[in-house]
């Protein structure tokens, strides 16, 4: 709904055209603990870009909720099979890792929540969470720190804290990660391939060991010569898609191995994958 318009640019076309006129498109990602927004203006349009970006956060009007609701429902249905079951592998893994907690819920919500959310609920959420104390503004590129500081103060200083900001430790300790036995879940689906995900509990991004974890994941999956791509794809030709990544939040994390393979190859691929993990 943030993309649908604000006081100055009343609809999504007018709003996004302003951004696209001076750089790369406006974008966003909704994650488990935060939402991130990004925009890449041409370097010559940095000030104009920050002016637009600040306006984007200061005066959204949340118009056309029914139109946006239809779009989000279509995105939600992408994760369902023909029987209406959510077969997204990441959602399945989170249900297994964090049962009976909000971490087990799909980030996008459910059909019921998407259909019942109102403009008033969105506005209340925005006023509570989208405040200066909950925001981090970051820059990357050929810009001077002094310049970005000056422009940020000029265009973002009007953002206030109408509510108490969340503390940096807000989520820490909210999830009980006790596990005394391996977890296994199989979701039947009619797809022509099997998606396999193996997760190991690891560190949060606040832990010093997280950087070791990031290096670990790159050894397994960072280009054709990385361990998994080289063995499973380039040498044996067993898979097309294989991935290893570090998934971390403020107080927990996992290292995840993903592979997509035909049914007749799943045992062989799983054995090789587990062997490579064991022999690391």
Fold blueprint:
Blueprint: H1 12-22, E1 23-30, E2 35-41, H2 46-58, H3 65-77, H4 89-97, H5 111-116, H6 119-129, H7 145-156, E3 193-201, H8 210-220, H9 227-235, E4 241-248, E5 253-262, H10 266-278
Antiparallel strand pairs: 1-2, 3-5, 4-5
Helix pairs in contact: 1-2, 2-7
Can you characterise this structure?
- With 280 residues, the chain is α+β, with helices and mostly antiparallel strands.
- The chain folds into 2 domains: 1-167, 2-Layer Sandwich (Cytochrome Bc1 Complex, Chain A, domain 1); 193-278, Cytochrome Bc1 Complex, Chain A, domain 1 (2-Layer Sandwich).
- 39% of the residues lie in helices and 15% in strands.
- The chain has 10 helices and 5 strands; from the N terminus they run αββααααααβααββα.
- The chain has helices spanning 12-22, 46-58, 65-77, 89-97, 111-116, 119-129, 145-156, 210-220, 227-235, 266-278, and strands at residues 23-30, 35-41, 193-201, 241-248, 253-262.
- The strands form 2 sheets. It has a 3-stranded antiparallel sheet, sandwiched between helices. Strands 1-2 form a two-stranded antiparallel sheet.
- Helix 1 (12-22) packs antiparallel against helix 2 (46-58) and helix 2 (46-58) packs parallel to helix 7 (145-156).
- The mean pLDDT is 92.
Keywords:
280 residues, alpha+beta, Cytochrome Bc1 Complex, Chain A, domain 1, 2 domains, three-stranded antiparallel sheet, two-stranded antiparallel sheet, 39% helix, 15% strand
